[in-house]
Amino acid sequence: MNNFESMKWPSQIQKIKEKYPILLNRYLIVVASFVLWITFIDRNSLISQYDEHQQLIQIKKTKLYYQKEIKSTLFDLNLLFSDNKNLEKFAREHYLMKKPNEDIFIVVEQPKTPND
Q1: What are 38-77's pLDDT values in tens digits?
Q2: Mutual orientation of helices 84-95 and 46-82 as an angle, nearest 10°?
Q3: Distance of CA 49 to the CA centre of its chain
Q4: b/e map of 78-88 (b: 16 or more CB within 10 Å)?
């Protein structure tokens, strides 16, 4: 029985060689293996490179956002410390500070509900 199966195998390979001779080309096999390795298997595969590139783009966007926020904050800081009136206004609005003879009224607007 083993002899019979072993005789079958070469004839099947011969049929494949006749129908698809390019599939058994050793250069094609090496290049296809290399492409599969680079695309899926390797630690630095193309898929992981794409994911890391997307993360880099997101980090650059975040960096630009924070740079704009730093500029805005520095502008507000310079404006705040340039004049005592601005400093007093900031303290009253954010920390609810008051003079001894004043009363503070806090008005909080209720958010509108969808039924209104």
Answers
A1: 888 888 888 899 999 999 999 999 999 999 999 999 998 9
A2: 120
A3: 12
A4: eeeeeeeeeee
